[in-house]
Design brief:
alpha/beta, 13 helices, three-stranded mixed beta sheet, Rossmann fold, seven-stranded parallel beta sheet, binds 2-amino-3-ketobutyric acid
Length: about 325
């Protein structure tokens, strides 16, 4: 079989690096990457070509490629997006819109649906207050879709744009057969944690930051309260879910957007786990009101039963396996070196 041509935007970010490595390991893909930044050494040799720069201005370049699959990972995350709101909108919405237009154009012209994989987020939810959050427990995709942040609004709107381009685009051809449309598939990710990279600009970052700091013997003032609870997932599971969703035949999908979950724990439970492995860790709580407000608006946990039913999703790492089989061995290895 010939190679599939894949575009990964935001390739230098955390999900991007892990995804490019996994695609390369699988084989059978020609991987084109793009990012505002140069590629890190971890994936430099795995990319056939890297387009560096602002996606919105670079979009014309991509009309020369015949992509089978697009992973559009480039984004300005929730905390950063609250500080630079209009810039976040431009990156998150305009960048997505431009790529959707490209995928729609190619799908129509070459009569072959381009697969468009989009990481949405628990930030697409918005709980009005802590009481509702505590009472709601796990939430389904259609519940509480009232985001409080620019990033959350951007993610929710881009889900809708993706659905528009995959279902309704081309209504201008009113008297003709509808065109072949792109195949839009999105995952609402919880906070992701990698043992190899650190996030930046997000609000779920306190989880990974606390663990990486503890492993390095650095003090960590956590920017949310000890009782703060949201869901998290190991990076390998995030990549597994993206690839599973890419592979599943369209007819098995009953929707465009799926929750995926692994484990939901509080910041204090993170601290306890960190202390168990690194007894000298100095972790304190020094909540930042704005960042606290953001996580308080995110659900405690999400219901991913539709992903489980439609395409057999199940994470490999529950909370114990996450710490014992993935994070701790990898992180010890990394910092002991
Ligand atoms: C963020 O904190 O902004 C992201 C997310 C939950 O989407 N990690």
């Amino acid at each position: 079989m010939s190679e599939q041509q894949v575009l990964v935007t935001g390739a230098s970010g955390e999900i991007g690096q892990a995804l490019v490595q996994e695609l390369a390991k699988r084989g059978g893909y020609r991987i084109i990457t793009s990012d505002f930044m140069p590629l890190p050494d971890s994936i430099k040799s795995l990319s056939a070509e890297h387009v560096q720069g602002d996606l919105v201005y670079k979009i014309k370049t991509f009309y020369d490629y015949d992509f089978d699959v697009i992973f559009h990972l480039a984004a300005s995350l929730s905390s950063k997006a609250e500080v630079a709101t209009e810039e976040a909108h431009r990156i998150n919405v305009e960048g997505t819109m431009q790529l959707l237009m490209l995928a729609a154009y190619r799908s129509e012209k070459y009569k072959k649906a381009v697969k468009f994989l989009f990481p949405s987020s628990i930030a697409a939810y918005g709980m009005p207050n802590l009481d509702s959050k505590n009472k709601a427990g796990t939430v389904k995709e259609e519940d509480w879709d009232n985001p409080h942040t620019m990033y959350g609004c951007n993610k929710l709107y881009c889900e809708k744009l993706g659905m528009y381009y995959s279902k309704y685009y081309g209504q201008k051809h009113l008297d003709e057969k509808p065109p072949v449309m792109l195949d839009f598939r999105a995952l609402r990710f919880p906070g992701l944690i990698s043992a190899f990279t650190l996030p930046s600009g997000g609000t779920s970052d306190y989880g990974p930051e606390m663990l990486h700091a503890a492993a390095q013997g650095k003090a960590y003032p956590c920017f949310v309260r000890a009782d703060t609870k949201i869901s998290f997932m190991a990076m390998p599971d995030a990549i597994k879910s993206l690839l599973m969703l890419m592979d599943v035949p369209r007819e098995k999908l009953t929707r465009n957007v799926y929750n995926v979950a692994a484990f939901a724990i509080t910041a204090e439970q993170f601290r306890q786990r960190a202390l168990k492995s690194f007894p000298d860790a100095k972790i304190s709580f020094d909540p930042n009101p704005r960042r606290q407000g953001i996580v308080d608006s995110w659900p405690e946990d999400v219901d991913d039963s539709r992903a489980r039913k439609d395409w057999g999703w199940a994470p490999d790492f529950d909370v114990d396996r996450f710490f014992d089989d993935y994070f701790l061995p990898e992180i010890r290895n990394r910092y002991e070196k």
